Amino acid sequence: MSSAVAAIPPEGGDELVAKYFAEITLDVVEQSLFRKRCMEEPGPRFVHLRRTAVGVVTVPPHIEENKPGKEPGQVWTGHPKVDRTMFIMDRRLELQRRQVKEISGQKNIPMLRGILGKKNFGTKMTSEPLMESHRSARMNSSKRPPFATLPPIHMDIM
User: What is the pTM for the complete model shown?
Assistant: First the structure.
């Protein structure tokens, strides 16, 4: 068993590692992006194959996310099944991070309103634009005293 592990190339691009990955078909846009990245970039940006303490790829292989701020150290393996799988995982993380960045970058997120003429963003001098909403009617209404169901006791009178 140890001789088989030692025979695995450090990149993980042989049949022993590739048999653990599924055949993947990419659509036209993703396939062109995959080919472009394989030619221009040394490897995936956000993922890598898990390695042992010796530095070889573990069997069975496992794709892990890179730690934040760490330079990507994984190169493309040269095996289509492994590279496509790493590309898909890399692309998923890239799109996920892009969505989080877009949401966190928004300053004013307008709410859906029943009345289109009244806006709910920008500088508010008074609560006038929100006076017709159900929530503002409840929050700004006069407060009622608590309703007691028992007769007052000494603590209530003090």
Answer: 0.58
